[in-house]
Design goal:
- By secondary structure, the protein is mainly α.
- It folds into two domains: 24-86, Arc Repressor Mutant, subunit A; 91-239, GntR ligand-binding domain-like (Four Helix Bundle (Hemerythrin (Met), subunit A)), CATH 1.20.120.
- Helix content is 62%, strand content 3%.
- Strands 1-3-2 form a three-stranded antiparallel beta sheet.
- Helix 5 runs antiparallel to helix 8.
- The radius of gyration is 19 Å and the shape is elongated.
- The two termini are 21 Å apart.
- 27% of the residues are buried.
- The model is unreliable at 13-18 (pLDDT under 50).
């Protein structure tokens, strides 16, 4: 496969309030991960460290550190004497991550439904986002994808188990690159609103069995959609106005 021409994209600016400012390697890592998630770098694309240094305006050391980190996480691989390559999708691994996600989220929902009295405050915010009239729903795919992540992360955080939330966050980041494609069609956005609404109502009603069933079905549906993804669809996602 020919080397992919990398567009010049400056490193994102970070706020000055952070207690521990990110290192240059951290910034490069986050930028490259966004490039992969936003399909500026597609599975199979090749690039060199020198290309990244020129594009990002940094030295080779932070670029190498960032790439090694991404390699350890399964996003890229080093090619003998020919730079680096974005790894093709490993759908078997993604299936395993979706299965883990299902276990984590259903455990969180079971815990949430055991709470008596007033609903957990975090869930009240979800009502304002997902239990809205059809005319008030968000339709921008990248925005809905971010909202979808936030919905599931909030459910897990609301359960009150920090370690559960930490593992779930890691799974979320590892499936983000393909999960985003689930919202390229309006019918999937509509379905997400309907399904999130039903899950949220069941949780607020402390109906653990119904909430767990709805959540499992919701995640399994997304998992099936993921299996249908092809490299051609990824290419189209990058070329579309909302894909990058």
């Amino acid at each position: 496969m020919p080397t992919n021409p990398i567009k010049r994209r400056p490193l994102a600016k970070h706020g000055t309030r952070a207690a521990t400012p990110p290192s240059r390697a951290d910034e490069v890592y986050e930028q490259l991960k966004r490039d992969i998630a936003d399909f500026h770098l597609l599975p199979g694309d090749r690039f060199t460290e020198n290309e990244l240094c020129e594009r990002l305006g940094v030295s080779r050391t932070p670029v190498r550190q960032a790439l090694i980190r991404l390699q350890q996480e399964g996003f890229v691989e080093v090619m003998f004497r020919s730079g680096w390559r974005v790894l093709p999708f490993d759908f078997n691994r993604f299936d395993q991550l979706y299965d883990l996600r299902m276990l984590l989220e259903t455990a969180a929902v079971q815990r949430l439904c055991q709470h008596e009295g007033a609903p957990v405050p975090l869930l009240q915010g979800l009502k304002d986002i997902w239990l809205v009239p059809v005319a008030d729903r968000e339709t921008d795919p990248p925005t809905v994808a971010a909202m979808d992540e936030a919905f599931h992360q909030t459910l897990v955080r609301a359960a009150g188990n920090d370690e559960l939330a930490r593992v779930h966050q890691d799974v979320t980041e590892r499936i983000r690159i393909i999960r985003r494609l689930d919202f390229l069609k309006q019918m999937r956005i509509d379905a997400t609103y309907e399904e999130h609404g039903k899950i949220l109502r069941a949780v607020l009603a402390h109906n653990a069995d119904r909430a767990s069933l709805l959540l499992r079905t919701h995640i399994q549906t997304s998992q099936v959609e993921v299996r249908k993804i092809t490299l051609h669809q990824v290419f189209l996602a990058r070329q579309s106005p909302t894909g990058g």
